[in-house]
Design brief:
There is one protein chain. This protein is an all-alpha fold. Helices cover 82% and strands 0% of the residues. The chain is built from 14 helices and no strands. The N and C termini lie far apart (48 Å).
Length: 289
């Protein structure tokens, strides 16, 4: 029973093994970025950028079909244009960056869906929006591995500046921390991880693997290091559970992984020791009387 349920799918099908390896790699790199987005009160920025990569992916699809290098390059360029363009528009017009970001991502989402619908079938549109484990080939694995390597190297150098800017930006500025540089680096890596993830989980679902474990982690730890470890652990569990659900229930891989992550978030929200509902509202026996 255990073999048939948990191990046989990966032992029998090579495409599932590739999807598992790729998603496990992303589960190590994407959730730490989600933790820093959450700490900087930018949780929805990941969702915006996930939509923002779609026109680039769509243009790559129109020009080269489902060829991974073209899709990845197009998504990376589009995501960076949305991420950096919103700040440039805000500075040029004197408006708010979040308003410019909203305008750009809504335009990008509509343009991407229109392009894919114009040149592709409904099956291809669904695959690009929600992912497909069949699409995780060697090129996709290389992209996922490269994204994870770049992310971990960046965090190794940027760990202290990012934490300092999150909790005390005035002191960070006083001691010479160049916050804008680290901020742009963080956004660039968010885009890279979203591009790497879309082949397996889709452009609309990629942000779920980044943000849901990070949001759930706040109910299991208080320090940043603990938050990152909890987020990675939850993402690894969600990846395995989601791929198994995708196989056994014949579901798209992206929604299955995100639903598994959402289930872990709900469990964390209820039973987590840090501000979980039970911890906050159920009196412990040693406190009674």
């Amino acid at each position: 029973m255990i073999w048939d349920t948990f191990l046989a799918p990966f032992a029998e099908f090579g495409f599932l093994r590739r999807a598992l390896v790729g998603c496990l790699v992303l589960s190590v790199s994407a959730p730490p970025l989600g933790v820093f987005l959450m700490l900087r009160r930018m949780s929805l920025t990941g969702d915006v950028l996930a939509h923002g990569i779609l026109p680039g992916v769509a243009l790559g699809f129109v020009l080269a079909g489902l060829w991974m290098p073209a899709l990845a390059l197009g998504g990376l360029v589009a995501g960076l244009v949305v991420a950096l363009g919103s700040g440039a528009l805000a500075r040029a017009t004197g408006g708010r960056e979040d308003a410019a970001l909203a305008g750009l991502y809504l335009t990008a989402l509509a343009a991407g869906v229109a392009l894919i619908s114009w040149r592709g079938s409904a099956v291809e549109l669904t695959q690009l929006l929600f992912g497909s484990v069949l699409g995780v080939d060697d090129a996709a694995l290389l992209l996922m591995g490269g994204a994870a390597t770049a992310t971990l190297l960046f965090l190794a150098f940027a760990w202290r500046p990012l934490i300092l800017e999150c909790f005390d930006p005035s002191f960070a500025q006083a001691v010479g921390v160049r916050g804008s540089v680290w901020h742009l680096g963080l956004l660039a890596l968010v885009v890279i991880n979203l591009v790497a993830a879309f082949q397996a989980v889709g452009s609309l679902m990629a942000v779920g693997l980044m943000m849901l474990p990070a949001i759930a982690a706040r109910h299991w730890a208080r320090e940043v290091g603990g938050l990152v470890m909890a987020a990675v652990g939850l993402a690894l569990v969600a990846t395995l559970a989601g791929l198994l659900a995708s196989y056994h229930a014949d579901l798209p891989s992206g929604p299955a992984i995100v639903l598994a992550a959402a289930a872990l978030w709900v469990i964390s929200l209820i039973a987590g020791p840090v501000d979980g509902l039970l911890a906050r509202h159920v009196r412990r026996p040693h406190l009674e009387g």
